[in-house]
Amino acid sequence: MKKTTRLIIATLLVAGIATAGGEKKKAPSTSDVETALEAAGAEHFPEKMKVGKVGSVKAGDTYYHAYCGTTKKEGYRVIFMDNKGNYLGYYVTEFEPSDYEEGAILLDSGESDEDGNTSYFAILVSEKGPSDKIQIDGIATPFVKNQKNEAKAEAAAEAAATEAAATVEKESMQPEYREWIISRSGKKIPVRAIYVKSSGDKVFLKSEVNGKTVPFKLRELSEPDQEYIKQLD
Question: What is the model's pTM?
């Protein structure tokens, strides 16, 4: 066992939608954390695990809220929630997470120096997210992620990308001369024109042949023409 007062063993990074900047928000209660663990699945909330708060750690421009989970089988879990209250995941360790300071969660090593000061292992906390694997007293320790949170982040990113693509496509659309189908007196009349504007139930089209702008009732246009106008508007 190493006896350095604060042995640095890992850097905690919280990435993607889990990163939450700004001032510290109220830390979730232990009951809220237990609810989040239960929602994440049995692996994250084993039977009879006790959950207690460690503290809210400032990391760069954001905060993370750390909790201690105690089980007979594993010993301790260092559980992390982000500043928005999302459950991120946990590390398993034999050392109790007993304290914290800016940028670090402190694990009680169970040993003291010659002056009687407790020695700690420290999990460093930065603002970008938990490392997939860290070293605790020389032991490789994986970060067990909340996969449901990961799926939620991926879904949000995909939705944002789809919305952005749709916005770009819409912004890139410009009116152009095209063939419109006008229905009048039971006849379908093709008209080569460009869209000018809409006003109430009327659509104004400028003829490519003579340059005149003529109003048409929206219902006179074919369904594809009406859909085209919606995309432009």
Answer: 0.61
Same domain, yes or no, for 12 and 80? yes
Same domain, 142 and 215: no
The domain containing residue 190 runs over which residues?
Answer: 178-232
> What phi, psi does 201 have (nearest 5°)?
-100, 15
Both tokens assigned to 3:
């006896």
Angle subtended at Cα 160 by Cα 155 and Cα 162, rounded to the nearest 5 degrees: 95
pLDDT digits (tens, 9 = 90+) for 12-60: 333 333 445 568 899 999 999 999 999 999 899 998 999 999 999 999 8
CA–CA dist 81, 44 (Å, integer):
13
pLDDT digits (tens, 9 = 90+) for 202-217: 999 999 999 999 999 9
**What φ, ψ does residue 82 adopt, rounded to 5°?**
-85, 180
Tell whether 10 and 122 lie within a shared domain: yes
